[in-house]
Amino acid sequence: MVSQLAGADGPAEPQPAPDLAGLAVFTLDPAGLVTTWSVTAAGLFGRTADEMTGQDIRAVLLTGPGQRELIGRALAAAAAQRVWSATVAVPAGPADTRVSLHCEPLAGPQPGVLVIAQQLRPAGRDLLREAATRIGTTLDLPRTAREVADVVVPAFADAMAIFVSEHLLTADEPSAQQPADSAVVRRLAARLADQAAVVTDGLLRPGEALVFRGESPSLRAMTTGRPVLFDRLDADTAQRLARGPGARHMVSDYTCWLAVPLAARGTVLGCATFGRAAGRSRFEPDDIALAGELGAQAAVCIDNARLYHRERRIAYALQHGLLPAEPRGPAGMEVAHRYLPVGASVVGGDWYDIVPLAAGRAALIVGDAMGHGPEAAAIMVQLRTAAHTLAGLELPPEEVLRRLDRMAAGMPAAPFASCVCAVIDPPGRSAVLARAGHPPPVLARADGTTDVLELPDGLPLGLAAGAFQPAQVTLPPGGTLALYTDGLVEGRIRPREPGLAALRDALGAALTRPGSSLDSACETVTQALRQRGEDDVTLVLARIRPQADVCAAGPTAR
User: Fold this and answer.
1) Is 175 exposed, middle or buried (0-12, 13-18, 19+ CB in 10 A)?
2) pLDDT at 179
3) Is residue 44 a contact partner of residue 96, using CB atoms and an 8 Å limit?
4) Which helix (H) or strand (E) holds 203?
5) Which CATH topology does 125-315 take?
6) pLDDT of residue 21
7) What DSSP line would sit under 356-395, residue for residue?
8) Residue ranges per domain, the chain?
9) How far from 557 is each of 341, 442, 456, CA to CA, in Å?
10) Would you tell me how many other CB atoms lie within 10 Å of the CB of residue 473?
11) Is 487 left (phi over 0), alpha (psi -120 to 50) or beta?
12) Across the 558 residues of the chain, what is the mean pLDDT of every consecutive 10-residue run?
């Protein structure tokens, strides 16, 4: 309850419905004397109003070690018109019970303190069940860490911080050997029961990199794989915290600490540090065992999020590393391109490339390796790299495809891929094209009419076809050549022929729209024809700039 009230000014996140069981209200005057004692307070603490009214709360109820100082701070906060919260242990029958206290200043002719008290659920199986329900709702690493801290504070501890080894966040796999005298970690989340989330995050910044050194209990927990109980912070941590505003006073409130390793799948990921303030019972053996079970649950969820983060990072790197960032043709050509991966995939099997050649010419290549995701991307990058190298050797399109086919046939589990290669000659206003099982290019004229270039089909790459037939076409003034992958024109509910007709219509309309550029036309056509997440989509448009136009003999291909 405290964390929800304190975090009301932070980012809104879904919270469980409030549990009003064990909730009580009473008031104190500025000196700490009880002025009102409700029926719910009598039920929670087992003391009647006659017993409590007019008594100093520190003399009859909150009498444990350090509790007098805590109530003194609460009264001082109320006098300064500030809210104050803490968790304390109070007598309740044969044993103590843990209660969260939320104190707010009372205004008016008789100032004082409004105290909202709530009994915290027993730390044990209930807390573990709550952890299983609330932790790991997403695969977002920072959010998962925040969920752990929200479960723990204040139900089990007054403070908590979660750290993960930096090398596990940046490297692909755990390092076999790590130095035992220090560890670089990153704080994922922290919570303090008596501080608003924005204050805690300002003092204990999420994502901050730290170094645990030899005397650090947290380092000992990580290196030994066992919980470490301690009474005071190590010198490095205390010095680091003391730099923050109000941090020295905050640290002095905590008298018992516990560091627990976070281990999952045989790897120590980092550690969780728990703190309890004065006025609350110290960590007993049962508490340490419970903290270990909480740490084990949290570690699995954090590791799942970490691994997902790693895969996303790899996929992002593939997406931006495998496809050319800004492929450009020679000065005599204008080129526009779009690539849209399927669904939630970041990378797939589509690729395109532009390779400048001698005499102002350029090779345009579009390919499609079967499949999606990392597997298709692994095949794609090999074919794209080979195609770029072969085209750069000034080989004709049919020879580029023949060598790609031979390479693909020799790969383990020979892939199935299609490809089209065009060498465009702006001074000659012509192009030589060849394709291997790929959809035919489309030629759009300046007036918006279009033709499908019926090139010799050729078998897909990887089948060792051995030969591909080229075709030469003339590019009319203002004409645009469109190379694409089949995701643009066909899908489960749309055959290729209607898809080709839709492409021709969209291309003619986009290119003749007043003020339309080649890039905007490419965007318009791609968005208009993309399927509902069925396949990757690639479209490349190329046309010869007007200053490169020359008179050419021979008719335009029809």
Assistant:
1) exposed
2) 54
3) no
4) helix 197-203
5) Beta-Lactamase (3.30.450)
6) 52
7) E-GGG-EEEEEEEEEEEHHHHHHHHHHHHHHHHHHHHTT-
8) 20-119, 125-315, 325-548
9) 32, 10, 14
10) 23
11) alpha
12) 31 42 85 93 89 92 82 89 83 66 85 88 74 89 93 89 89 53 92 83 89 91 94 84 68 86 93 88 89 93 88 66 62 90 66 91 92 72 90 95 91 82 95 95 96 91 87 95 92 78 94 93 91 76 75 36
- Could you please report the per-residue DSSP string of 385-451? HHHHHHHHTT--HHHHHHHHHHHHHTSSS---EEEEEEEEETTTTEEEEEEES-PPPEEE-TTS-EE
Task: Find out whether 2 and 191 touch, Cβ atoms under 8 Å.
Answer: no
User: Which amino acid is residue 284, in one-letter code?
Assistant: E
Query: Within 10 A of 125 (CB to CB), how many other CB atoms are there?
Result: 10
CA gap 114, 105 in Å, rounded: 6
Give the neighbor-by-neighbor strand order of the sheet with 480-484: 333-340, 537-544, 480-484, 442-444, 450-452
| pLDDT given at position 547 | 65
Give dist(CA 432, CA 395) in Å, integer: 11
By CB atoms closer than 10 A (0-12, 13-18, 19+), residue 70 is buried
Q: Model's pTM, two decimal places?
A: 0.54
CATH superfamily, region 325-548? PPM-type phosphatase domain (3.60.40.10)
Type and span of the H or E element at 348: strand 348-356
Residue 556 phi/psi, 5-degree rounding, is -70, 140
What is the rounded distance in angstroms from the CA atom of residue 64 to the CA atom of residue 80?
25
Q: Do domains 20-119 and 125-315 have the same CATH topology?
A: yes
Q: What pLDDT does residue 323 have?
A: 54
Q: Where are the beta strands (DSSP E) in 217-347?
A: 228-230, 254-264, 267-277, 333-340
Structural contact between residues 461 and 404, judged by C-beta atoms closer than 8 angstroms = yes
CA–CA separation, 164 and 303 (whole Å): 10
Strand partners, 367: 351, 419
Show Cβ contacts of residue 216 under 8 Å, excluding neighbours closer than 6 positions: 234, 236, 237
User: Is the CB of residue 30 less than 8 Å from the CB of residue 76?
Assistant: no
What is the predicted pLDDT for the residue at 17?
Answer: 42
Q: Any idea how long the chain is?
A: 558
CATH class of 20-119: alpha beta
Q: By the 8 A CB rule, do 106 and 112 touch?
A: yes
User: Cα-flanking dihedrals φ and ψ of residue 502, to 5°?
Assistant: -65, -40
- Dist. CA 229–CA 444, nearest whole Å: 75
Q: Which two tokens stand for residue 539?
A: 């479209």
Give the separation between CA 509 and CA 511, rounded to whole angstroms.
Answer: 6
